[in-house]
UniProtKB/TrEMBL annotation:
Organism annotation: Rhizobium etli bv. mimosae str. IE4771
UniProt keyword terms in alphabetical order: Ligase
Superkingdom of origin: Bacteria
Pfam families per record: DNA_ligase_A_C, DNA_ligase_A_M
Family: Belongs to the ATP-dependent DNA ligase family.
Ranges for domain ATP-dependent DNA ligase family profile: 148-266
EC number: 6.5.1.1
Keyword set includes Ligase: yes
Region (Disordered) residue spans: 1-40
Matching NCBIfam families: NHEJ_ligase_lig
Protein name in the entry: DNA ligase (ATP)
GO MF term set: ATP binding; DNA ligase (ATP) activity
Reaction it catalyzes: ATP + (deoxyribonucleotide)n-3'-hydroxyl + 5'-phospho-(deoxyribonucleotide)m = (deoxyribonucleotide)n+m + AMP + diphosphate
Protein's GO biological process: DNA recombination; DNA repair
Length: 350
């Protein structure tokens, strides 16, 4: 006897006339209506380069010039462009040409990581010129000559790229910001060369140094070693704890007294008396006189006269060649004041 066909356990459709429907979609952020993939982060803490005495070896390392400026993240969003400093402050209004150029890039949403710089006559990035264009520390000027050197792409048209390896991120960045441009946003190009040779050439041309990046690394916030910087001339932030009066120097500032951090205390590391221009010295003197202190913030045994102590609230960017045997800066030169919005940090002694 033939068996009747088995009845399906459940009909494919309860109602044959009902329309076919897909699964309900997750709710999307109304501020980002076109994004169907990864939500766009409001801010990403930057990946920082670890200072090393010499370039790393190996085929996995890609090299770039080290730029001397302000680290920025350019956010291209549906609502417009935001430019954030390393410390998370919104400086969009201070870089109008960069913001305008970002709007012209052929992308709906993106986060570019890079450095704002101002070039000198030889085409070298100059931190002092960048500061002057912004009106100095705490200034409110807009910089029309600043250029954004883009070296990473963290978000691209709805995709979070921080878990993607550097090689793929660079490939997308180079399609978005072509090499050789002269606009306010330019590509920081990778340089195919041996690290030691590139460092020597960079130093011969008066550049600050080079950066090496692991091609296989993802983007991780902090100073974890996937990025390495090697400097021709050391340059770091030091707290100003006082100054020496002078009747002949610009602004009557003969020298700044500097300190580094060791644990929870400040340690005197010497003085700097070069690198000032007349107008800078006058502004610096006026700023320091507003925060005078009755006693030094460090132990001082230098024997200098005519010293004025101040509260350690100002961080100066200082170039120097090396350290002396007794822990002082060798051949220091003043470059400018770091801005608190740039997450100014005082150099930490080992």
């Amino acid at each position: 006897m033939t068996k009747p066909p088995r009845k399906p356990a459940q009909p494919l459709l309860d109602d044959a006339e009902a329309p076919l429907r897909s699964r309900p979609r997750k709710k999307r952020d109304p501020a980002q209506p076109q994004l169907t993939l990864d939500p766009m982060p409001a801010r990403i803490d930057p990946c920082l380069a670890l200072l090393k005495p010499r370039p790393p070896k190996g085929r996995q390392w890609a090299f770039e010039v080290k730029w001397d400026g302000y680290r920025l993240a350019v956010h291209i969003e549906p609502s417009g462009v935001r430019i954030l400093t390393r410390g998370g402050h919104d400086w969009t209004a201070r870089f109008p040409t960069i913001a305008a150029e970002a709007k012209r890039l052929p992308v709906s949403t993106a986060i570019l990581d890079g450095e704002a710089v101002v070039f000198d006559e030889q085409g070298r990035s100059d931190f002092g010129r960048l500061q002057q264009s912004l009106g100095g520390r705490g200034g409110l000027r807009t910089s029309w000559e600043a250029v954004f050197m883009a070296f990473d792409l963290l978000y691209f048209d709805g995709r979070d790229l921080t878990e993607t390896e550097l090689t793929a991120r660079r490939h997308l960045l180079e399609g978005l910001v072509p090499a050789g441009g002269e606009d306010a946003i330019r590509l920081s190009e990778e340089i195919e060369a041996d690290g030691d040779v590139l460092l020597r050439i960079a130093c011969e041309h008066g550049l600050e140094g080079i950066v090496a990046k692991d091609r296989h690394s993802t983007y991780r916030s902090g100073r974890l070693g996937e990025w390495v910087k090697v400097k021709c001339i050391q340059s770091d932030g030091f707290a100003i704890v006082g100054y020496q009066m002078s009747g002949v120097a610009f602004g009557n500032v003969g020298a700044l007294l500097l300190a580094a951090r060791r644990g929870d205390e400040l340690v005197y590391v010497g003085s700097v008396g070069t690198g000032f221009k007349a107008d800078e010295a006058m502004k610096l003197r006026a700023t320091m006189d507003k925060i005078k202190a009755t006693k030094p913030a460090v132990k001082y045994f230098g024997g200098r006269k005519n010293l004025i102590w101040i509260k350690p609230k100002l961080v100066a960017e200082i170039e120097y060649r090396s350290w002396t045997h007794d822990g002082k800066l060798r051949h220091p030169s003043y470059k400018g004041l770091r801005d608190a919005a740039d997450n100014a940090a005082v150099y930490k002694l080992e």
